[in-house]
Write a structure and sequence with these properties.
The chain is 35% helix and 21% strand. By secondary structure, the chain is α/β, with parallel strands linked by helices. The chain has one domain: Phosphoglycerate mutase-like (Rossmann fold), CATH 3.40.50.1240. A 6-stranded mixed β-sheet has the order 3-2-4-1-5-6, with helices on both faces. α1 (29-44) crosses α2. The radius of gyration is 15 Å and the shape is globular.
């Protein structure tokens, strides 16, 4: 069986608002637009996660709302404090914990976790992967970017980096 893991980094945030904690930081106009654009792109490419795990930071929740505004249909979302600045180990544990009966799962989080988790999987299993995608994801994981990874496993608790293959890597600036 194939499971699908979508990893998205929050859209561009606003650094100009003084007095807000990192967790309270908002998206800027560019980020709001990019999140909506990505939601439309996901809809057009029939990407519809069964469950979305979203960091509790305001900017990740605004990214999720932008995806929905852009046209992404969602069935279930879970806002998690543990995803805020999570390590790859923590993120993997949350996937295992919340994935259960779902075939498709999406994380909306932060770097370095988004980059480390997706690039780590992509680099572990390059067979059949587009070299251009590998090059893009190896270099950086910009704000608003989405990596889609196919995992060969029956259930989320049985996967590891060797069982995944990068299928897509889309950045807001790549949308035409």
């Amino acid at each position: 069986m194939v499971l699908t893991l979508h990893i998205m980094r929050h859209a561009k945030s606003d650094w100009s608002a003084h007095g807000l904690s990192d967790k309270q930081r908002l998206l800027n106009e560019r980020g709001l637009h990019a999140a909506s654009q990505m939601g439309g792109w996901m809809r057009r490419h029939q990407i519809k996660p069964d469950i979305i795990l979203c960091s509790s930071a305001i900017r990740t929740q605004q990214t999720l709302q932008g995806l929905i505004t852009g046209g992404l249909a969602i069935d279930r979302k879970v806002i998690l404090d543990d995803l805020y600045l999570a390590s790859t180990r923590t993120a993997t544990g949350l996937i295992n914990q919340h994935g259960s009966a779902h075939k498709s799962l999406m994380l909306i989080g932060h770097n370095p976790m988004c980059h480390e988790l997706s690039a780590g999987i992509a680099i572990e299993n390059t067979k059949g992967c587009d070299p251009l995608l590998l090059s893009k994801i190896s270099n950086s994981f910009p704000t608003g970017a989405l990596a889609s990874i196919e995992i060969t496993a029956n259930i989320w608790t049985n996967w590891d980096a060797n069982s995944g293959r990068l299928k897509r890597f889309m950045r807001p600036k790549d949308i035409v």
